[in-house]
Amino acid sequence: MAASNSGPISAEGRAALGVAIRLVFAQWTELQVAVENQWGGRDSCAKANQLCKSILSWFCRSKGPHFSEDLVDVMLHKISESFNADFDDNSVEDVADHLLFIHEQCLQNNYSPIEKLKKSHVQGNDVSQTNQVCIITGSLAELIIILQRFVDCDCIQAELLYIYI
Question: What's the whole-model pTM score?
Fold first, then answer.
């Protein structure tokens, strides 16, 4: 039973944790497949953003301790609700444990695991990868609303954004 210690997270730690969640989710194959294949409908990318926000909120709203089983339950519920999917490959548990470890490091003002994530993300991010692409179609007004969601979101940032109008 993995757990991260109790205590409030600093503003700097919250920001770093938000970045870490975004990076972990960007590397989570099952979630990226759900987004790419629009298992959550045309707004699958926005649903992935909301998942990220929900997980960050879960970490930040309570003082803890935060247990793996609780985080897994939250993630499974949100994934089922947003994407009508069940990830049965233990990836949810692996991601939850990874996020709990990073949360613990953020509480200790140790951001080196996040720096490692950033480096691995940049190294693995070549043009041939398509697992972080959101395709936006529709009117200019719809495009502006969607882009505003990205700007307002502190969790997920589209690495590659192809816009087809």
Answer: 0.72
